[in-house]
TrEMBL record:
Residues 38-57 bind DNA. It comes from Sphingosinicella soli. This is AcrR family transcriptional regulator. The keyword Ion transport does not apply. One of its GO terms (molecular function) is transcription cis-regulatory region binding. It comes from the Bacteria.
Length: 210
């Protein structure tokens, strides 16, 4: 019994150390950018040694994959809480778009954006992240389709709206580095919701007539 408890405690301790390193990397990337977030700075922020970092992650890219997975897990969990298929469509769409935006503009998701942007000039990072991006795309699409599973509309339309939603929000996330007002932010979010509602309404009417 004591041995089992010791093993669990050790596993918990290792998981805690890994989480601290990932969260430190997220904070560091959000503060100084992907390129400047060195292992030394991350370890200093985490209050851990370089040996601890090397024990948990094979290299810098391994840590970046862990950061992306951690951030996306939090993002997906928030969306599941904020919106459900039981809600009226306008409220459901409004809530999922605003919940996604609130997550993307937060510090954690800015780290994810920084890493993804860095892949444009880092082919090795792109290849290491490709499996994660594929898993994220598959999972987020499944969640999106489930959220709107009550609608009699083509799957292709739902997929397209998901892609437009996240592309628009990621673009907004990048643009907040420039002059950006809350009023304009709300305008952009409302614009997408209204456009999506119009497209879905038109598709439903077309389906009923056919």
């Amino acid at each position: 019994m004591t041995t089992n408890r010791t093993r669990r405690t050790q596993a918990e301790r290792l998981a805690s150390t890994r989480r601290i390193l990932v969260e430190a990397a997220i904070a560091e990337i959000g503060e100084v950018g992907y390129a400047n977030a060195t292992g030394t700075l991350i370890c200093s922020r985490a209050g851990l040694t370089r040996g601890a970092l090397n024990h948990h992650f094979r290299d810098r890219m391994d840590l970046m994959v862990a950061v992306c997975e951690y951030v996306y897990a939090s993002f997906a969990a928030t969306l599941r809480v904020e919106a459900s298929v039981d809600m009226p469509l306008p409220e459901r769409l409004e809530r999922v778009v605003r919940a996604a935006w609130s997550q993307l503009e937060a510090g954690n998701n800015r780290a994810l954006v920084e890493i993804i942007v860095a892949t444009r000039h880092d082919p090795a990072l792109l290849e290491r992240l490709r499996p994660f991006v594929q898993r994220m795309d598959h999972h987020s699409l499944a969640e999106w389709l489930q959220l709107f599973s009550d609608l009699a509309v083509p799957r292709r339309l739902l997929e397209g709206l998901r892609d437009q939603c996240y592309s628009s929000l990621y673009g907004m996330c990048l643009m907040t580095s420039f002059e950006w007002t809350k009023e304009y932010e709300n305008y952009q979010l409302r614009l997408f919701v209204e456009m999506a509602l119009a497209r879905l309404s038109a598709a439903q009417q077309k389906r009923r007539k056919s």
